Amino acid sequence: MKPAPFEYAAVSSREEALRELAAAPETTRVLAGGQSLVLEMNQRAVRPARLVDINPVAGFDRLRISRTPDTGAWLHVGPLVRHRAFERPVEAGPLGRLLARTAHFVAHPPIRARGTMLGSLAHAHPTAEWPTLAVTLDAEVDLALAHGSRTLPAEEFLTGAFSTALAPGELLAQARFPLLPAATGVAFVEHRRTGASFAQLSVAAALLVEEGVVVDARLGLAGVAARPVRARDAEHVLVGRPPNERAITAAAVAASAYTADPPADPHADVAYRRHAARILVRRALGQALDDISDIVERS
User: Fold this and answer.
1) What sections of the protein cross the membrane (predicted)?
2) Are 79 and 172 in contact (CB under 8 A)?
3) Do 165 and 104 sit in the same domain of this protein?
4) What are the CA-CA distances from residue 171 to residues 16, 30, 167, 257, 285 (Å)?
5) How many CB atoms neighbour CB 79 within 10 A?
6) Residue 116 CB-density burial (10 A; 0-12 exposed, 13-18 middle, 19+ buried)
7) Do both 228 and 198 map to the same domain?
8) Is residue 218 over pLDDT 70?
């Protein structure tokens, strides 16, 4: 099949993009990487009347780091930053390592060369890698309109499977990820049926251990609900305890509780997802602890 007829506008500035979106907000879609949107248009699953192509906009492919006493240190990601930009660390600390490790799970090289991180966030596939990482790390997104803007935590922006808080006429203008303390150990693990499949489950982990005790823990799970979730009960199990076998086992059990009401999948029932979640959490925590050991050896 081919797309239904549509109008096309290529814009050269943020202001022009917002004007074009405001002209017909209910029937206009933004074209960035197009790796999901164009496929859905070809299948006629979506039929936008207009496409606003933001690829000519200078500066939309920018990555930058900001540091201020009030807000801390953040990595800013523009709407045209491609997946492949993260295949190598974009900063020298644990956030750069985690983004790089995660990027290699994203689709395939041709898709990573064209698709964008913010496009993935806007598409909101329930097991996509970038939404999982954004929720895990308390990332923020900036949404822009012709007459203003707003900022949301990623956890509020992602409202369900293929569903976000993005309103008609809004542009997902930026995502911000907080830089992690230098001693943080990080990991990202996935389980999928085949190399070409979407992930069935995935886990992102970030652990900060000081004097033999976990002082901060972040665990994000995808594939156990309609959108990625923070396993906060599991995080609470870990914080304040040595990261030993008992603590890791308890955290894995707590995290698997999120599989009580998973999305329907003929390849993975509730019992399977609960079992797989426990295994992946243990694996992610183990890799994060190995990462901490590597940091110590390098220092």
Assistant:
1) none
2) yes
3) yes
4) 12, 8, 9, 35, 36
5) 29
6) buried
7) yes
8) yes
